[in-house]
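REQUEST ID: PR-0412
SUBMITTED BY: lab tech R.K.
PRIORITY: routine
TASK: structure prediction, single protein chain
INPUT:
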Amino acid sequence: MNKIRWGVLGTARIATAKVIPAMQRGRWSAVTAIASRDRAKAETAARALGIPKAYGSYEALLTDPDIDAIYNPLPNHLHVPWTTRAAERGRHVLCEKPIALTAAEARHLLELRDRTGVRIQEAFMVRTHPQWLTARDLARSGRIGDVRSIAGCFSYYNDDPANIRNVPEFGGGGLMDIGCYLINTSRFILDREPQRVIGLIGRDPRLRIDRLASMLLDFGDAHAAGTCGTQMAPYQRVQILGTRGRIEIQIPFNAPPDRPCRVLVDADGHLSGSGIETIELDTCDQYTIQGDLFSKALLDGTEVPVPLEDAVRNMECIEAVFRSAESGRWERPGSAVPAS
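STATUS: complete
OUTPUT:
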């Protein structure tokens, strides 16, 4: 076998517009089946994307013996149930973020992985994109001195009550949808876990989801601050600030697949920006990279790029931000005891 045969659960836009076409361009990935609870939708998507098989139920896809791995882009509240069903069928799973609604659910997946022997990974595609790998290497190289702060913003505007991202019972809201990126990438750059977090939440009175969330993560000698919003002007940017300079990632999360990405390095610290160096990364698709690295790990029998334990720790941080917004105190990720 020289390619992993993928099945896709559902016809979510992120799957049909971004992930599937990108994986079809991969060296080690082949998308061979797609399923929907509406067979007509599955067949329409299969025809449009050139996928050989279409199924009218998720369970029917999971029983296909020619499927090696599952991509799960279902709504947040269905991530754990269908990842569980796939793993029980012996299928490896790449599951969209957030991998669960709670840290306890995420820890259940650890037990599931260990019991079934399948690989399970949360689909934070940014973790394998060259711009983030470059930013991490620069931060660790000492080029900007010691990292002291990471500041990020991620926002878009969506107040449609019918949109799945605006339904609280389905895990909707800004922190779960996009704030999770700010937490994940700060942990990635600093390569450790925050000791405590504090959060503020602003809720939409009609939709009841968090439309505005701000957080401060205390890593000891470094802090990470972030704001996400689902009813704000579309914007995203990340700054990594050190004792001698800074790194800026211009389009950190929705990296364009059709043009180079740019990372800016200001190692001089002039407010005029006269010393800024622009590092241009080759054009690439982060979803192609994500799928191929997962597939290659399966083919080689090695560990997947991002271990499932990382997903658990990210969920613990998300929960701590929510707890802090309620308690008004610092909260410790992974612990019900408030931080001092």
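NOTES: The chain has nine helices and 14 strands.
REVIEWED BY: pending
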